[in-house]
């Protein structure tokens, strides 16, 4: 999915946290997906103070939206560099097309994972015969310096490992949890899983103490005893070996975690880079390729989407600067 704000903020991420932080509630900000008449998504990462959880650098939660008789999601071809996109649905369908020639429908319980590497473009749309409700999560993972220029590639995982406990179940999208391991490609130590919690239960999840973890609420839940409303994220910090998620009714949540990302990065529009000059260069390459339909350029061409590719927003007047992964509050 694209960050298709007309005037995207400069989003600074990366760097080492100097101390184990206290748990922190991250509230989403609303962003229109596709313009002022489009559905709104709630964005919890990057947040004002905390921009990353491990290598997870972007988290949008959308729906449930009734798209009966509507086009639904329509995100024209757009570019990415230096990241992986993770598409996860709770309800509905999204059709992916990319410049490598892949066309893949994703449905609930399936994972579309696209590694942008040095550059790729793709589109996402609700298919013509889509169901009434669209509801899902879009996540990005920053690639580390040594792998951020890998060749782009795409994976679809139609069946993912599921671990069950008396209190619920965990579907493991990436990494390992509760003895289950996903085959999805990762470039840094991390975990991503959807949790289903039985009504009235508290699900105790053993986690890697060397990771930092956060829980995105897909329904109203508690995390380590703290109330977290739908669409909010609780950053649970580092050093813990267990996260407890409770729910009065049947609950759902996303658990995200990973080794603290030690690099400073700059995230602007759909690019993850390390400097203003790098972002300006890839933006210029996208614009040249978009205007000339250059199949051999960095981003290639997406075929089959019935609308022009997205034009890149103008760069901000001030130079983009890499900063720490946590905002300096002093």
UniProtKB/TrEMBL annotation:
Origin species: Saccharopolyspora mangrovi
Pirin C-terminal domain mapped to chain residues: 194-290
Protein name (Swiss-Prot/TrEMBL): Pirin family protein
Region Disordered: start-end pairs: 1-30
Similarity annotation: Belongs to the pirin family.
Pfam families found in the cross-reference section: Pirin (PF02678), Pirin_C (PF05726)
Domain Pirin N-terminal: 45-141
InterPro entries, A to Z: Pirin, Pirin_C_dom, Pirin_N_dom, RmlC-like_jellyroll, RmlC_Cupin_sf
């Amino acid at each position: 999915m694209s960050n298709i704000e007309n005037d995207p903020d400069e989003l600074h991420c990366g760097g080492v946290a100097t101390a184990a932080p206290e748990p922190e509630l991250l509230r989403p900000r609303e962003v229109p997906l596709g313009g002022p008449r489009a559905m709104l998504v709630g964005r919890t990462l990057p947040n004002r103070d905390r921009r990353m959880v491990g290598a997870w650098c972007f988290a949008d939660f959308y729906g449930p939206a009734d798209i009966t008789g509507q086009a639904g999601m329509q995100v024209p071809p757009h570019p990415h560099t230096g990241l992986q996109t993770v598409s996860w649905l709770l309800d509905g369908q999204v059709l992916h097309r990319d410049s490598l020639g892949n066309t893949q429908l994703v449905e609930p319980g399936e994972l579309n994972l696209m590694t942008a590497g040095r550059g790729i473009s793709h589109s996402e749309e609700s298919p013509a015969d889509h169901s009434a409700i669209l509801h899902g999560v879009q996540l990005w993972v920053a690639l580390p310096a040594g792998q951020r220029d890998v060749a782009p590639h795409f994976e679809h995982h139609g069946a993912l490992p599921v671990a069950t406990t008396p209190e619920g179940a965990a579907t493991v999208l990436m990494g390992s949890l509760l003895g289950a391991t996903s085959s999805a490609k990762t470039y840094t130590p991390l975990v991503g899983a959807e949790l289903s919690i039985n009504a009235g239960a508290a699900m105790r999840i053993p986690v890697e103490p060397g990771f930092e973890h956060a829980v995105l609420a897909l329904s109203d839940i508690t995390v380590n005893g703290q109330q977290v409303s739908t669409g909010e994220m609780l950053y649970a910090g580092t050093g813990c070996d267990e996260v407890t998620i409770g729910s009065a009714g049947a609950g759902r949540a996303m658990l995200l975690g990973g080794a603290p990302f030690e690099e400073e990065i700059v995230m602007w529009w759909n690019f993850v880079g390390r400097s203003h000059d790098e972002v300006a260069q890839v933006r210029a390459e996208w614009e040249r390729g978009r205007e000339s339909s250059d199949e051999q350029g960095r981003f290639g061409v997406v075929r089959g989407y019935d609308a022009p590719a997205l034009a890149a927003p103008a760069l901000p007047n001030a130079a983009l600067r890499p900063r720490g992964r946590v905002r300096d509050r002093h």
